[in-house]
Amino acid sequence: MAATPATPAPLLHSTVLDWYEANARDLPWRTPEASPWAVMVSEFMLQQTPVKRVLPAYAAWLERWPTPADLAADAPGEAVRMWGRLGYPRRALRLHAAAVAITREHGGQVPDDHAALLALPGVGEYTAAAVASFAFRQRHVVLDTNVRRVFARAVEGVEYPAQGTTAAERRTATGLLPADTGTAAAWAVGVMELGALVCTARSPDCGSCPLRRHCAWQAAGCPPYQGPPRRGQTYEGTDRQARGKLLAVLREAHGEVPQARLDAVWPDQVQRARALDGLVADGLVEPVAQGVYRLPH
Fold first, then answer.
1. InterPro entries under this entry (predicted)?
2. What is the DSSP letter of 28?
3. In angstroms, rounded to a whole number, what is the distance separating the alpha carbons of residues 42 and 58?
4. Is 207 exposed, middle or buried (0-12, 13-18, 19+ CB in 10 A)?
5. Which candidate in 43, 78, 169, 193 is catalytic?
6. What global pTM score does this model have?
7. pLDDT value of position 186
8. In this structure, are residues 91 and 45 in contact, taking their beta carbons and an 8 Å threshold?
């Protein structure tokens, strides 16, 4: 489904772009000085992590590893250590692997070709499109959670998008993508910002939304979500929390860690063993000897 006849795509474009120009956050990866590598680092860090938590980690990361070659020259465990408490630490390993590939296969420069970006380790469809669009000002459909929510409400007239990206969503996004390359890149980040700041998941500020007069969800009376139950993420007492506790010990140790130090931070023996096995399987932790562990070298 494309934009409704009452709301031509060019009107949506100009409305969102005018709003973005006046309201965009001043973020370091959006400055003219931000390198493609800086944009890629931000995209890895921003996955499932709020901007306010990313900002200090992003600055520290680029200070230590301002280029892909700088990161590639270091051990993957150092990437895990620097990732700190951002969560989902496998992203650190994937970013390290991408840096190694960029250094070996692309002369240390983040490639500007979408297919080459997609071929990098740890780079999926969203990240490849985002880096190509935001770093190189190319024309690509960039679909993250915020963009999908804006399109679901403004175009489809429903409160939330489906749990996973659908072919219909891709058709909508493709149909709304401006033909001009520069405008398309600005549109991609503008819609994303609108979803992050105004058309939020829990408390959308419809009164200040630039699309309120064109929004299909508003026109329908803001009907409540009718799809499958949306599960909230829990953390306390989960294997994910156990993994985080164990990994924190290893990050802070700067060396090998005996089993006893890991045992001390999580009392449930079965869950602790399961979490540790998962960290080893994911490549985040290396067994050195019986009962001795370290970050990957």
1. DNA_glycosylase, Endonuclease-III-like_CS2, Endonuclease3_FeS-loop_motif, HhH-GPD_domain, HhH_base_excis_C, HhH_motif, MIG/MutY
2. G
3. 7
4. exposed
5. 43
6. 0.92
7. 97
8. yes
Place of tokens 């003219």: 32
Query: Is the pLDDT confidence value at 242 over 90?
Result: yes
Q: Are 157 and 214 in contact (CB under 8 A)?
A: no
Mean pLDDT of the chain: 94
Q: Quick one: CA dihedral 178, 180, 185, 189, positive or negative?
A: negative
Cα 91 off chain centre by? 10
Please report the beta strands in the chain, taking only residues with DSSP state E, as ranges in sequence order. Answer: 257-258, 286-289, 292-294
- Asked if residue 68 lies in contact with residue 17, where contact means CB atoms within 8 angstroms, the answer is no
| Position 82 confidence tier, pLDDT thresholds 50, 70, 90 | very high
Residues 6+ apart with CB under 8 A from 178: 9, 13, 139, 184, 187
Q: CA nearest 158: which of 224, 211, 204, 208? A: 224
- pLDDT-derived band at 119, boundaries 50, 70, 90: very high
HSE at residue 257, side-chain half, CA atoms within 13 A, is 23
Helix (H, G, I), strand (E, B) or coil at 258: strand
> What does the DSSP 8-state code read for residue 158?
-
Residue 36 CA to residue 3 CA, distance in Å, equals 32
Q: Is 43 assigned a catalytic role? A: yes
Q: Which two tokens stand for residue 69?
A: 């070659």
Gap between the Cα atoms of 251 and 59, Å rounded: 19
The model's pLDDT over 12-56, given as tens digits with 9 standing for 90+, comes to: 999 999 999 999 999 999 999 999 999 999 999 999 899 999 999
